[in-house]
Design goal:
about 250 residues, 5-stranded parallel beta sheet, 5-stranded mixed beta sheet, elongated, binds S-adenosylmethionine, S-adenosyl-L-methionine, methyltransferase, Ribosomal RNA small subunit methyltransferase I, RsmI_HTH
């Protein structure tokens, strides 16, 4: 019986791949990738010839069964995504869950992940953090999701698309208040890597100041509320009460 390896790949800088990741990708019988054409470029760059097979949100259920079959026949499989760590706002959960249910050994490799890369340089507390992936796109659902942070004391970490980043920061101003501290981490590991931190209002102004500020890939971090500042809590509480009235 074979094994399933979970292999993180770079989030922008091609050099951010471990020796072990390259060795595993070269040794396994099959690499399951979100977008095979995209991943082919990475493999070609490292002269890895392993066969690729697609596994994305739309075929995961069917593909998982096929891959489990192959692993049970003795093949070793690596799972990669377009960038960063598979399963972190990326496909793979169904496959891993079913592999474990079928007693297949799943071996995770550590490696690049935009959330932790952003967090460790943001200057926000890291002792407790809440990873939320992408916010809902629809406004009401997004506001509801943001409202759950009114009393959150841990740092929250989100992924956001460049098309929505300015609107999302405007939504933060509306739901969590103009003074909530946030950090934007943009284009991590790439040439134009930028961290911008300030109040939600400052960040919104910065994003709107230049269309280039909105381009690229973003991790958005929202600071927690300081629990012992009763001032903040009562303001947040008042807002929460207001918002709750609006919810269905
Ligand atoms: N699995 C990936 C990981 O481990 O980080 C995340 C995949 S998710 C589909 C893609 C999102 O991650 C992007 O929309 C962006 O929010 C964030 N992201 C990925 N690469 C990034 C980078 N170089 N800089 C900032 N954010 C990045």
């Amino acid at each position: 019986i074979g094994k399933l390896y979970i292999v993180p790949t770079p989030i922008g800088n091609l050099a951010d791949i471990s020796h072990r990741a390259l060795a595993i990708l070269a040794e396994v019988d099959l690499i399951a990738a979100e977008d095979t054409r995209h991943s082919l470029k990475l493999l070609q760059h490292y002269d890895i010839q392993t066969r690729l097979i697609s596994l994305h949100d739309h075929n995961e259920a069917q593909r998982a069964l096929e891959l489990i079959n192959k692993i049970q026949q003795g093949l070793n499989v690596a799972l990669i995504s377009d960038a960063g760590t598979p399963l972190i706002s990326d496909p793979g959960y169904g496959l891993v869950n079913q592999c474990r249910a079928a007693n297949i050994t799943v071996i995770p490799l550590p490696g690049p992940c935009a959330a932790t890369t952003a967090l460790c340089a943001a200057g926000l507390p890291t002792d407790r953090f809440r990873f939320e992936g992408f916010l809902p796109v629809k406004m009401q659902a997004k506001h509801q999701a943001l409202a759950t942070l009114l009393l959150e004391s841990a740092t929250s970490v989100f992924y956001e698309s460049p098309r929505r980043i300015a609107q999302t920061v405007a939504d933060i101003v509306e739901v969590l208040g103009a003074e909530r501290e946030i950090v934007l981490a943009k284009e991590l590991t790439k040439t134009f890597e930028t961290f911008y931190s300030g109040t939600a209002a400052d960040c919104h102004t910065w994003l709107e100041a230049d269309p280039n500020h909105q381009r690229g890939e973003f991790v958005l971090m929202i600071s927690g509320v300081k629990v012992n500042q009763s001032e903040v809590s009562s303001e947040a509480m008042a807002l929460l009460t207001l918002l709750m009235k609006e919810l269905p």
